[in-house]
Amino acid sequence: MVDTLGHNFDLESYKGQKIMVSFFRFYTCPFCNLRIHTLSAQYEKLGIKIVAIFESSNENLNKHLSHYELPFPVLSDAEGVFYES
Question: What is the model's pTM?
Fold first, then answer.
């Protein structure tokens, strides 16, 4: 799997670490955007790894998030595969 920045993402690389997988609806959701920015601002204080999953296409996420430097990977799940799991 590839994140929005084109980096390979493998959940196995987080083995043994505390991780929060955070699900978001779509890239234009104002509540989701507030939450992603709050998580980004508090990332160091939280002391855990975060993976954000949006129910949006990679193309839309890149358009919207490209000007933010998020300290954690963001994954696209436009088909809702992760939501179904």
Answer: 0.87
Q: State the residue range of the domain holding 48.
A: 17-84
pLDDT tens-digit profile of 39-71? Answer: 999 999 999 999 999 998 888 888 887 777 899
- CATH number of the domain encompassing residue 43: 3.40.30.10
Q: Are 21 and 42 in contact (CB under 8 A)?
A: no
Quick one: CA dihedral 12, 23, 8, 71, positive or negative? negative
DSSP for 3-61, please give it. Answer: -TTS-B--GGGGTTS-EEEEEES-TT-HHHHHHHHHHHHHHHHHTSEEEEEESS-HHHH
User: Using an 8 Å Cβ cutoff, are 2 and 32 in contact?
Assistant: no
Distances (CA, A) of 52 to 15, 24: 17, 7
Q: Tell whether 80 is covered by a domain.
A: yes
